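for ur thesis appendix - Release factor glutamine methyltransferase. copy paste whatever u need, i formatted it the way the template wanted (i think)
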Amino acid sequence: MKLNEARTEATARLLAAGIDGAARDADRILAAVIGVEPGRLRVMDHDLTPDQQDRLWTGIAARAQHQPVAQIVGFRDFYAHRFIVTRDTLDPRPDTETLVEAALALPWNSVLDLGTGTGAILLSLLAARPGSQGLGTDISPAALDVARRNAHLMKVTAGFRHADWYDAIPERFDLIVSNPPYIALDEMAGLAPDVRLWEPETALTDGGDGLAAYRVIAAGATDRLNPGGHVLVEIGPSQGQDVAGFFAQAGAETRIIPDLDGRDRVVLAGFRG
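the 3d part is after this line
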């Protein structure tokens, strides 16, 4: 089968399965199979090997079952780097780059990433600020293994520790960042199947109102920050006022930062020295 024939057939199969963005997803899977960037497919046409065809149709069948493309191909490009993604981690999303950009506009030399997952936030920050130090924590040992692999591949030095939020974290940092589970339990059923069925539930929801992690992070921030330190947390689009309120009660000056679509995305909390 020729490459262009495979593209057409793969797209048709995903369309038949009701997958939004079928052509885009088919190209991402095919490109990963043959080891090129998706944009190059438009100028290529050659016979696929039997092994490549098998891997393509296996990937397309998985996508037809709503498995995220990042899990199928094994990676996601985020900020300026490529990160390994597995079912043990959230798929890093472009909206989270808002937090990275906000962090890089602040003065800091040390950073704590609570619930690091793939390490996408932490490693992007450390790579962009040579000489800085960082620690990523997660309650999932499997997620920490993925983060360590990403750090090795990026040649970024970072510490990783198994911890439940601030537990076992006695150190102080200039900056604390987190993209915690913020989906309320009663909202889980409404999530797209790509997320609900395939991403780790504990990284999506706190099993309650979606605000539990922010309460913990805000309450413990002053004990983990150096004087004049900051906290940046990703939020759901309707949570800005509640989350900012938690940090204000802890003594911080707060600001809500929108993403590129204009939705509330990040709360910045600054603590006076």
